Amino acid sequence: MPKRHTLSVALIGTKFMGRAHSNAWRQALRFFDLPANIRMATICGRDRAGTRRAAKILGWEKAATDWKAILADPLIDIVDICTPNDSHAEMATAAARARKAILCEKPLARNVAEAQRMVDAVKRARVANMVCHNYRRVPAVALAKQIIDAGEIGDRVYHFRARYAQDWIADENFPLVWRLQSKVAGSGALGDIGAHIIDLARFLVGEIAGISAVSQTFVKKRLTKNRQLARVDVDDAVSVIGRFRNGAILNLEATRFAPGRKNQLTFEINGSRGSLAFDLEDMNRLHFYNANDPEQARGFREIVVTQSNHPYVGNWWPPGHIIGYEHSFVHTIADFVKAVATHKRIQPDFASGLKTQRVLDVVQHARALSSL
Ligand code: SOE
Q: 257: closest CA among 198, 353, 189?
């Protein structure tokens, strides 16, 4: 039996995404048959004490605070970037020069220029690269893709409409965190959660030909951490209409001002012979309408996506035992490890992330409203 290769990983970032990715690096090998072992070598954060705590709790061998030193370590094979958006381009281009495989959280960058630099760097270095759009690998979403590709909603798609709604900043007293500062985030709800539904639109329906959009900043000023009042220079919400290259119509909404919606991503796709609908707050279920069903039995059916032949779920529990948000990261990282170990491309790669970034950029600069 040939000795299995071991891939040593360094993760940069210790907050929400750092924790979600750490869990995924630990679980991937335990639940998926991977062509390589995974060594959780180093986690890197800003402050030494906090990063040491994170290493201990999240299962990393070492804690570091100098990400550049990590890239110089010849024993590191993979760099996983889970930091705020303003560091993605610098870290990824340096990691590419150091010949590391790279997984980067979404959005790829703050703007198209940065995203283009990242694509150029990974192409030049010929290193594996992937953007972590984890919702593609929610089993119900992956099943929707299979149903569409099998032509079971018909050979034409008429509509893709999606909404990603949260409410964590609807309180005007919520402080001016990095996700609300364009110099760090690039944009607001648009790049943070809008990027997810733009990626899903491209994944499930196809490339986008053109868009029109309106965005709004509802709370114009917020308190910084030093209690100074500062202007909010990103969108709080955005609405997009558009057209795909295949003629389907696109409707998207990304908002952080939907009180009661904690993390609700919904989409509905209408095709010539059927429809699909999904709600992340009920993520183990896919709603499917098949116009070819016998007329007396025709209607939306609810598929509980937990059968062993459904995407990914056979690796977890028996039918009916549901999974959660964190499993989508395990699926993403398991597929990434397979790609790195077998030298195959994996989607969405940085080139795909750049296409999403181009849509973000056009939305951000769209001036669509005709005054009445
Ligand atoms: C925003 O709060 C956020 O954390 C996004 O940044 C993530 O991508 C999304 O999965 C959950 O919400």
A: 189
**Predicted local confidence at residue 324, as pLDDT:** 98
3-class secondary-structure state, position 22? helix
From the number of C-beta atoms within 10 Å of its C-beta (0-12, 13-18, 19+), residue 225 rates as exposed
Contact indicator for 130, 346 with CB cutoff of 8 Å: yes
The residue whose CA is least distant from atom 11 of ligand 1 is 263
C-beta 192 within 6 A of ligand 1: yes
User: Which pLDDT value is given to residue 3?
Assistant: 60
Token output for 333: 């990282």
For residue 212, what are its two tokens?
Answer: 């029109």
Domains and CATH numbers, the chain: 6-135 (3.40.50.720), 139-282+284-323 (3.30.360.10)
> Can you give the pLDDT at residue 367?
77
Average pLDDT, the chain: 97
What pLDDT, in 10s, does the model give residues 75-109? 999 999 999 999 999 999 999 999 999 999 999 99
Decide: pTM greater than 0.70: yes
Position 202, amino acid: R
Q: Which atom of ligand 1 is nearest to the CA of 106?
A: 8
How far apart are the CA of 368 and the centre of ligand 1, in A? 27
Residues of the chain with pLDDT under 50: none
263 lines ligand 1 (CB under 6 A): yes
